[in-house]
Input
Amino acid sequence: NAGVTQTPKFQVLKTGQSMTLQCAQDMNHNSMYWYRQDPGMGLRLIYYSASEGTTDKGEVPNGYNVSRLNKREFSLRLESAAPSQTSVYFCASRPGTASGNTIYFGEGSWLTVV
Amino acid sequence: GQQLNQSPQSMFIQEGEDVSMNCTSSSIFNTWLWYKQDPGEGPVLLIALYKAGELTSNGRLTAQFGITRKDSFLNISASIPSDVGIYFCAGQLQAGGTSYGKLTFGQGTILTVHP
Output
């Protein structure tokens, strides 16, 4: 009963370091998303992948890159971490059909950049 | 970009009281969703609304899709301690094109319930 699984759960980085957040879903969903959550800001979309082989920028893509490795996996990479990227990151997936509007979220990854 | 204003930002209530929160948008959405987030967890969908004017209930929760398609509200009746958490509204634009499936979230309402 895994749903959306993301790793790591917690990470501390130094400014300038790089890292990749991994996400996998076992629900055969077409669409996958990366959001960041900051106090008082709600969830803001970083990047999304409407289907395997496609990726598009969301609301706040600067400083991030993504890879839709296959239908199951969608990774988020920080090439040179900055303190402004300290946040909670959520991966999500969705069936991708017009009638299936439910988005399922992972448990979150807490990232601190010092 | 799309803007969603969610209010109130926080609420402190006594167990048994009713709760009401709402979201307004500067633009039209064709779907409104309400999520709850518990500490240390990802958001979980509570109610989905697909038609203007739609009123939908899920147990003690009731949500409505505004007639103008620019607003929605969520009511919780007879609150209990486990209702504590952050509640988010989210709007979705018309499917298709580059906006397909993307949600715009409100800032969240932090609910505290005193026993």
User: Anything to note?
Assistant: The radius of gyration of chain A is 13 Å.
